[in-house]
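pls design
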């Protein structure tokens, strides 16, 4: 089975590097970065839903159930299928992996 997912965010300590000084600027910059990322996620979610994928929430990302009639057996086949309706720069944001049944 081929599974796809899109990262939403990581733990705050991963994204903000708590070992460095925390400043208001750092949080505002993180907010701007997060807004950009969510715009991209929104685009991807819309495109995948238009093609029969169903999103479901996980801890730090969204997983997607494949459409019932989708017959892809490899990660490369899934990448090729997605490239038919998602621009390459957005496909890079999608994690595609083989998982056991």
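designed seq:
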């Amino acid at each position: 089975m081929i599974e796809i997912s899109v990262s939403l965010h990581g733990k705050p300590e991963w994204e903000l590097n708590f070992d460095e000084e925390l400043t208001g600027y750092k949080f505002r910059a993180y907010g701007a970065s997060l807004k950009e990322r969510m715009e991209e996620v929104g685009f991807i979610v819309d495109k995948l839903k238009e093609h029969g994928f169903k999103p479901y929430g996980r801890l730090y990302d969204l997983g997607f159930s494949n459409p019932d009639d989708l017959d892809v057996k490899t990660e490369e086949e899934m990448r090729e299928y997605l490239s038919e309706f998602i621009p390459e720069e957005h496909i890079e944001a999608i994690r595609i992996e083989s998982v056991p049944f």
